[in-house]
Amino acid sequence: MTDNLNNGIFVKNDPSVMNAITIDCVIFGFDQGSLEVLLIQHGEGISKGKWGLPGGWINKKESIDDAAHRLLNELTALDHIYLEQLKAFGNPDRFPLRRVITIGYYALIKRENYNIQPGFTASDAKWYKINQIPDLIYDHSEILTYSLKQLRERVRQAPIGFNLLPEKFTLLQLMHLYEEILGIEMDKSNFRRKILHMKLLVALDEKQQDVSHRAAKLYKFDSEIYTKLTEKGFNFEF
After folding, report:
1. What is the phi/psi pair of residue 11, to 5°?
2. Splitting the chain (238 residues) into consecutive groups of 10 residues, what average pLDDT does each group show?
3. Which of 236, 95, 54 lies closest to 156 in space, CA to CA?
4. How far is the C-alpha of 140 from the C-alpha of 146, rounded, in Å?
C-alpha cells in the first residue's frame, strides 16, 4: 500500500477522495484597523511545521463548495461563512511530488465574531497581518496575492467591506477600513465628500464616547440603500 500526499497531509490509499484535486481557502479578517489572513501550521506530512492556507482533499461524493466549508471547519473551526470561488491553480510543478490542481476560495470576515481553533491535521491556526506573512508552502503566496487582488477589485464594486465595522462608526474609521484593504492612502476631504454623496450613511445625533481626542460624529448604514448597492454594484473610486 502506498500513501497519497497533498498539502502535507497523508491520505492512506483512500478511494473516497479525489487524488489530484484539492481546495485552498484564503480567509481575510479585519481587526482593530488591520487586514489579516488566517494561516494553519501543518502537523504532519512533508510540510510538517510549515505554514500555509487551510485546505485539503475533496471527497468524491461532495461538491467542491461543500468540501471548502468542511475543510475550513475541520482545520480552523470556522463555520457558516460565505466563501467565493477564485479559480483553479494548476502550475505543473506547484506541488513537489506530483501533479495536483487546487481550487481557491476566499472570504472576508470580522475576526471578533469567530473563535479559531486548530484541528484535523493542523497543529496551529493563527491570524497574520497582511504585511507580516511568513514563508508559505508551495504556491500559497501566489494564491494569497491573487486573492488580495480580487478582494481589492471586489470592494470597489460592492459595499462588502462595510459590514466589518461596528453598527455605529466614524467616517475616519470607514476611511481606515478602505485604506487597509486597498493598500492606499486617501485624502480625508475627498473621501468624506464622496462617501456622503452616495447617501449610503445615516448621520446620528451621537458622538464617540471615552476618547482622548475630539469626539467625532457617528454614522450608520442606510440598510435600504446598502441592499440596493449590494445588488446592483457601484463604483467606489478615489
Report:
1. -130, 110
2. 46 65 95 91 93 95 96 96 95 88 94 92 95 96 97 84 84 90 92 87 88 85 78 67
3. 236
4. 10
Q: Which helix (H) or strand (E) holds 201?
A: strand 201-207
- The one-letter code for the residue type at 9 is I
- Reported as type and span, the H/E element at residue 29 is strand 17-31
Quote the pTM value.
Answer: 0.85
CA separation for the pair 62, 39 (Å, rounded): 24
- Cell 501550521 belongs to 41
**Would you give the end-to-end CA distance of the chain in angstroms?**
59
| Encoded amino acid at 99, one letter | R
User: Alpha-carbon distance 229 to 223, whole Å?
Assistant: 10
